[in-house]
Amino acid sequence: MQPRCTLIHAVAVVAAAAAAALLLPPLAAGQPWPTCDTSAGTYKAGSAYESNLRDLAAALRADAAASPSALFATGNRGGAPDAVYGLLLCRGDLSVSDCFDCGTRVLADVGRVCGGRHGRAKDVALVYNQCYARFSNKGDFLAATDNAGGETLLISGTNITGGAGVVAAYDRAVTELLAATVRYAVEENPARLFATGQRVGDDARDPGFRNIYSMAQCSPDLPPASCRRCLDGVLARWWQVFPLNGEGARVAGARCYLRSELGVGPFYTGAPMVVLRADKMDRQWMYADRRSKEFIDGVHYFLRVAEANRQRGFICCPCNKCKNQKEYSASRTIHFHLFESGFMPSYNCWTSHGEQGVEMEEDEVEDDNIPDFAQYVGFEGNQTGEEEIAADGNDVADDLGQMLQDARGDCESEKEAHKLDKMLEDHRTSLYPGCEQGHKKLDTTL
């Protein structure tokens, strides 16, 4: 099944023809939005395949509703050439009864959609606002860890107006919100792999758009790392397949699902799990007095964005000393550095933290003349106790430190490991308090 882009009355177009998709009208209200692939074969009404298909749809409905912690089920019915494989995933915020109801709609629709004079498609995906279902005569998609088996792309509208600047700001806001929602789903809700989000704007800052809502979800049988790769892949392709002025869009697949919508209210139930505020997105605060409330609040907002864009579990530090050349696993270390020495010059475009193409405003100033935070709170240096990591992933100290780290992994006894730990400690410890940087206990011993 090839990725397809559904825009109106369940009409599907190949996603590669994204340029043509920009000219089509928005998504209609009718559900489901099916994606049909006859290349896998067709079946006739009353056939053994249809009987197996309906039996499987009923079983998936019951199984998904019987697992309130997952709202998810997979299965198969029959043998070749009439074997059917299927998956049902309900939206993670639904009740068991709502999930069952959506499964009932799947059962009613699966036998009537995707029909034609040559028969009904064996490979079909059904997208609803409350659930996603996939059926095929091949079970490869159940073993996959991504949406390689097929995706349905939906566009809700293309009405963002106000010029290129407004559209660009909207695109950045959507990307930022989706990235934060993906991170939350994987890292904060790994059992269900589901998250909802909201970006709260205001009319003055965001003419043409205000509240944006989001959702990220994976099938809960995926490992979190696979879920993250699947969702990151979808997000990386987002603006390649969707129009830049789209009010809303979603990518629905058997393994992961990502959605954003502009509107007066959320499309999910309950409070959003992730909230981003537009009043923290004005970058002038970055070079304000570091004692000011706007700087303090802004740093907290920046760290949430940075958390959403971790690389290999680490975050680049954009402080005026590290300049994105060092990485840390703990955000509190970066928090400390930013208050101690401020942001590096002209870092209004957070290129090391998931952004592209944002330029510094002309009226923004840098804080070269503002006293260091350490000078008025009474501390200096890295007091977090965390080991520094270079941006290329290596220990900042030097090759000797790396050699000791490697040897530590080859230790065959606790005694040997303890000796290596002591050497590593000496390698990181200054010869005496106030000693010139670079002179360590182990260096002097050697």
UniProtKB/TrEMBL annotation:
Signal peptide positions on this chain: 1-30
UniProt key word Repeat: yes
Keyword rRNA-binding: no
Pfam families: Stress-antifung (PF01657), Transpos_assoc (PF13963)
InterPro entries given in the database record: GNK2, GNK2_sf, Transpos_assoc
Limits of the Gnk2-homologous domain: 31-140, 152-265
Sections of the chain in a coiled coil: none
Domain of life the protein comes from: Eukaryota
Key words, A-Z: Repeat, Signal
Protein name: OSJNBa0004L19.19 protein
Organism of derivation: Oryza sativa subsp. japonica (Rice)
Gene: OSJNBa0004L19.19
